[in-house]
Amino acid sequence: MALPQSAYKDRQLIAVIGDEDSVTGILLAGVGHVTDAPDSQKNFLVVDQKTETSTIEGVFNSFTKQRKDIAIVLINQHVAEKIRPAVDGFGEAFPAVLEIPSKDHPYDPEKDSVMKRVRKLFGE
């Protein structure tokens, strides 16, 4: 059954959570957006060694549960590993959560939440 148009009609942005190189590349592609004042929410988060797991999880939850303007959340796989229960627990159609590789951390399909669901669907 198809979702009603109201579930996705206002979702126009791509959000990104990742290391500096990944976020910079995606922002250079024109994806960056900051909402109007007074709250001025960004659609990206640069994660480094000092970024706390609670901050990453809070931004992830904001992008997936609170904001209704985000259609896709791109997250570096090594960052998703830090908040794996939240990533694996998110099963809604919108926004789509996609794990991407980074320069220093190769992609591992065994850890990807989407690939896990696909394997489960096909009975593997």
Structural features, described:
By secondary structure, the protein is of the alpha/beta class. The chain has one domain (5-121): ATPase, V1 complex, subunit F (Rossmann fold), CATH 3.40.50.10580. It contains five helices and four strands; from the N terminus they run E-H-E-H-E-H-H-E-H. The protein has helices spanning 20-28, 53-66, 77-80, 84-89, 113-121, and strands at residues 13-18, 44-46, 70-76, 96-100. The longest helix is centred in the middle third of the chain and has 14 residues, at 53-66. The chain is globular and about 50 Å long.
Any chance you could write out the topology, listing elements then pairs?
Blueprint: E1 13-18, H1 20-28, E2 44-46, H2 53-66, E3 70-76, H3 77-80, H4 84-89, E4 96-100, H5 113-121
Parallel strand pairs: 1-2, 1-3, 3-4
